[in-house]
Amino acid sequence: MATADILVVGAGVVGASVAYHLTRLGHDRVTVVDARDRDVLPGSTGLAPGLVGQLSSTPELAVLAKDSVATYLALSQASPTPLFWQVGCLEIATEPARLEQAHLDVEHGRRLGIGAQVLDAAEAVALAPALVNAERALGALHIPSDGAADPAGLTHALVDAAERGGAGFRWNTPVCALERDQGRVVGVRTGKDAELLRADRVVLATGIWGPALAADAGMRLPMVGVQHPYVFTTEVAGLDDTPIDTPIVRYPDHSVYTRRHGRRFGLGTYSHTPLPLTATTALASAERPFREADFGAAIAEATTLVPAFREAVQGRRLNGVFALTPDELPLVGPAAALPGLWFAEASWVTHAGGVGRQLANMLLETGDLLVTPERLAPDRFTHWTDEKTRETALGHYQGIYDTH
What we know:
Largest sheet: 9 strands, mixed
Strand order of the largest sheet: 6-7-5-14-15-16-13-18-17
Helix content: 25-40%
CATH superfamily of the largest domain: FAD/NAD(P)-binding domain
Number of helices: 11
Shape: globular
CATH architecture of the largest domain: 3-Layer(bba) Sandwich
C-alpha cells in the first residue's frame, strides 16, 4: 500500500478522537488500524462507565476535560441519538473537611472557567434521591456542566465523522510490531501475514497495550495498567429506558461513584488494594475476571452507601483495566528518542476529546495547543526507574478523586 502520512494504531475513543480532529483540520492522509471488528469495543473504551467530570486540581486535566465536553456536545447535537448528557455531577461531602473543601473548589472552578456551587444536603438529595445518602450527606459540590457519555456511541460517531473527513479505517488488523529503519519508526507489522503498513508517523493510541508495543521498539512508556471493579443492579422497577436523567454522584470521602444506566444503576469503587496488570499483545480484552477476593469487600461497603443499591439485586459485575501514569496526566506527543513514533496514551473518556485535539494540532504544527507540550511529554519520566514509576502511579489509585 502507499505510505500513509499518519497511521493511528487503535480506534478506541482516543484514537478515533485523534483521527477526527486531524480531519477537522483538513488533513485526510490518515489511516487508523484496529484489531477488532468495527462494531466491537473490547478495549477500555467499551468498559468505561462514561462519567465526564471537568473540575480537577491539575489544571491541564481540567482544560482537556472542558474541551472534551465541547466536542462531545457538538457530536451529540449532530447525532440522531444522544451521545452525551449534561446532567451535572454531585460530589457528596460526608465529612466536615470535605464540605469545607467544596467551598474552595467553587473558587478553584471559577478560575478554571468551570461553574460550581455548594448545595445543602436536602438540595443534593432532591437532585438524585436514589443515589445520594440522606443519612450521611452534609452537603455537596454541584458542577452542572459535567455529564455522562455513551462511550461506544461516541466512539462510533468520531469514527464516522473522521471517515467523512477522508480518514481510512482498517478493521480486524492487529498490529504485532513497530517497523524501524535507520533509527526511526516507518510503519507497523500486522498480524495478518506480517504485512507491512508504512507511514511517515505512527501514533500509538492503544491504551493498556501501549507499553508492550513501545517496548518492542525499545521504548518504555511510563504507565501502569490497573484493574477496577464496576457493578450494575438488575433492572429496577419504575425506571424507564432514559439513559440518565439525574446527576452522576461521587463520594470522594469513600472513593465511590455511581450513576443511572437506563433501567439499572451502576457503581464503581477505588477503595481496595490496587491491582496492577501488565498487558501483552496476546491479551484480547481489557476486561478481566471479577474476583470476589479482590473486590468483594469494597463493593459490599460501597453498596451500603448508595440508596439504590441497598436492596437491589446485583447484576453484571465487571473488572476493567485502565492506565495510570505517575502524575495522572496522559502521555501525548512524540517519542523523543525514536523519530516517527507518537503517543496518545493513558487517557480516559473524560479527556479523550481534548487529547485528540492536542495531538492533532501537534502533528500538524498549528500552534493551537490546549496544554503546554512538556506537561504531557511521554519522556517526562525518562530518569525514573520502573519500580518508582509503578509505585507512584499505583499510589494515586485510591486518591484518584483528588485530581479527577
